[in-house]
Write a structure and sequence with these properties.
- By secondary structure, the protein is mainly α.
- The chain is 55% helix and 4% strand.
- It has one domain: P1 Nuclease (Orthogonal Bundle).
- It contains 13 helices and 3 strands.
- A hairpin with a 2-residue loop joins strand 1 and strand 2.
- The protein is globular, with a radius of gyration of 19 Å.
- The N and C termini lie far apart (55 Å).
Length: 284
């Protein structure tokens, strides 16, 4: 029985890797950076919502829960993780209404708006606030991954076959996991390496909205297809030059996600945290 359980668990892990956003390390990097910039008041407010966990831990929760047999996780949760817009320039955030329940969420932008509204509402039950916090941590990471705002026809790069140092993969998985894993760093090491105390840079990142984050990803996604086109009907074999070109973009998106997640949470839970630099805790 234990062997069967182990095999089933292994199958769940190997099949779910194909749909993870940023992979486990990527989401943990975002959570770790955010954790370093929370104000003390926000940290205290998050304690009952995290229930003993830390932001890096809950960052992967929304992907892990896809194995839950409940209808929401099997039939509805996947649409929270991405958005496909045929013409990015025509995306109109001003006329995008906040979903009134989790069942009304149609895409990642609506998911983020729903999470924020639920967390701001003091009447939201604790269990629901725990749900929405965990999802929000994940979605802020997802919305900064450009392939989660990619082309509908290739499922955000999932159908674009490539090789990475000779190993078959796809463009989405390359961006989710392979680029970051090529550096052989733990999530704590990676977060420490790319985190910043540059106040002007932080202010620039925080002077934005979830709609801006989405539009950034939409614009970036177009460039990620460069170099991924078939060569003589064969999948291109990407390696060092692709890392050189694209890894800085991936690292910037992770840093932006972490900084912005901290700023967002501080703005919800700390009245003293104003938009801009003061929405973030920084080291002297």
């Amino acid at each position: 029985m234990k062997i069967a359980q182990f095999v089933c668990g292994l199958l769940l892990i190997t099949t779910s890797v194909q749909v993870l956003a940023w992979g486990q390390n990527g989401h943990r990097i975002v959570g770790q950076i955010a954790n370093e910039h929370l104000t003390k008041k926000t940290q205290k407010a998050l304690l009952p919502l995290l229930a003993g966990d830390l932001l890096p831990e809950v960052g992967t929760w929304a992907d892990e829960m896809r194995s839950d047999p409940a209808e929401f996780w099997q039939k509805h949760s996947s649409r929270w993780h991405y958005i496909n817009v045929a013409e990015p320039d025509k995306f109109d955030a001003e006329h995008y209404h906040t979903p009134q329940s989790k069942d009304d969420v149609k895409d990642i932008y609506g998911g983020i708006l729903r999470c924020i509204a639920a967390l701001k509402d003091k009447n939201t039950p604790l269990a629901e606030r725990q749900f929405y916090l965990r999802f929000l941590v994940h979605l802020v990471g997802d919305i900064h991954q450009p392939m989660h705002a990619g082309h509908a026809e290739d499922r955000g790069g999932n159908l674009v076959e490539v090789k990475f140092f000779g190993k078959p993969t796809n463009l989405h998985s390359l961006w989710d996991t392979d680029l970051l894993e090529s550096q052989n760093l733990s999530f704590t090491e990676y977060a420490a390496f790319i985190d910043t105390q540059d106040k002007q840079l932080i202010k620039t990142y925080l002077t934005s909205t979830p709609a801006d984050w989405l539009k950034e990803s939409m614009a970036l996604s177009e460039g990620l297809y460069q170099g991924a086109a078939p060569i003589n009907n064969a999948s291109p074999d990407l390696s060092y030059s692709y890392i050189y070109q694209q890894l800085p973009i991936a690292q910037q998106r992770l840093l932006q996600a972490g900084i912005r997640l901290a700023g967002l949470l501080n703005s919800i839970y700390d009245p003293r945290a104003k938009p801009g630099l003061t929405a973030l805790a920084t080291k002297p």
